[in-house]
Amino acid sequence: MVGFPPSALFDMQTLNLAALAGMGKLARVQLATSLPGIKPISLIGTIDRAGRTNLAPFSSILHLGSEPAFLGMVSRPDLVERHTLSNIIEIGAWTINHLHPEIVTMAHQCSARYPREDSEFTATGLTPHFEVDFPAPFVNESRFRIGLTLEDLIPIPANDTQLIVGRVVLIQLADGLLLDHGGIDFSKMECVASSALDTYFTAQPLVRYSYAKPDQALTEI
Predict the structure, then answer these.
(1) Could you point out which of 21, 43, 120, 176 has its C-alpha 20 to 30 Å from the C-alpha of 137?
(2) Distance (Å, rounded) from C-alpha 47 to C-alpha 45?
């Protein structure tokens, strides 16, 4: 039987729908984006047919499948011009570029609403990197980069967002980051995570366990 630590009791604050409605808009958005907890954040690299590059930070990336490898990310409602979404639809490819502390400031600046003619690469000092036979730009300064092609675009009518589904076709990691068991050494990479719209964290490993089975005790690896 697996042993678990005893439950802890906490003094809890309750926010119902009325309380949420009474919050200021920015505070409500900050809270909503914090609900999933600390999560990975990456720069999404795209380009349009005119050759105009774009970078945008996304923290809504999720794993959708392993064989083949699919990743998804959510595009916000199309109430204003969404360069990332329109470029992905136009070109059919994009890149995910993980962050580390040395590029966090530049990555955060990419969230500013630059006009389409102004590339975030140029505005922030980041460097585009292109691979042969892959159209979208990678961030040269990133230590972990992924190239994807568009597999599906799924509307979410409840809030007018869209789930962008991509097939992983290219992975690039700095030497020493790929572990023998297939995992990635995020601590060595100094991987950055985020919460809300403006707060960043570095990730450190806590523990790695054996594969969980009903009749076997967990062991630390």
Answers:
(1) 176
(2) 7
- The neighbouring-strand residues paired with 108 are none
Distance CA 45, CA 191 (A): 18
Tens digit of each residue's pLDDT (9 = 90 or more) over 164-190: 999 999 999 999 999 888 889 888 889
Domain coverage including residue 159: 40-202
pTM: 0.87
With beta carbons less than 8 A apart as the criterion, state whether 185 and 179 touch. Answer: yes
Q: Does residue 3 sit within a domain? A: no
Closest CA to 97 of 40, 145, 169: 145
